Amino acid sequence: MLNIALPKGRLGEKVYKLFAKAGYEFEGILDSSRRLVFENEALHMRCFWVKPFDVPVYVERGTADIGAAGKDILLERSPDVYELLDLGVGKCRMAVAAREDFVDEPERTLRVATEFPNIAGNYYAELGRDIDIITLRGSLELAPVLGLSDVIVDIVETGTTLRENNLRVVNYFADLSARLIANKSAYKFKREIITEIMRRLRGHD
Predict the structure, then answer these.
(1) Residues 6+ away with beta carbon under 8 Å from 142
(2) Could you tell me which residue, 136 or 138, shows the higher pLDDT?
(3) What is the pTM (predicted TM-score) of this model?
């Protein structure tokens, strides 16, 4: 039985539709129920929904053989997995944003609010910039508006929320999308089926 971890929510539904088009369907998976585990006995596959940030955990520890995770989560968590394929859905970018009147002062510590402290830390470390990371869980746009931070590091899709809060993008620095990942041991022992899944998904990305 091949185990597949998909992220709950809109991104996971987009990824599942790719799997379905490629011939890997699980009855009832898109129904509005609270079921989390679905099996296709004919394919010898099991698919289950987990929170997006947890997909790499399930794959790294071998509970799932393969999974779909956002590139942002892979960059933040650095799991010990194989990144096999860009699935081409959920496209967005990681960016630094600030108030319209923001002017950087390199001689002072920059206050950075983010849900992604590792990504932000690595980005500014490459720039040699001294920062103070403020980790928040949502509504990041408030931080610079209310003076909690100078900038935010966040995912930007359309930029509408930034504009509505009088913020602007200072810099885009990473392209993001859903990626197919695999447990390293599973890839070794189930390589044939995983490679076939990749081949089919490439035909429907």
Answers:
(1) 148, 165
(2) 136
(3) 0.92
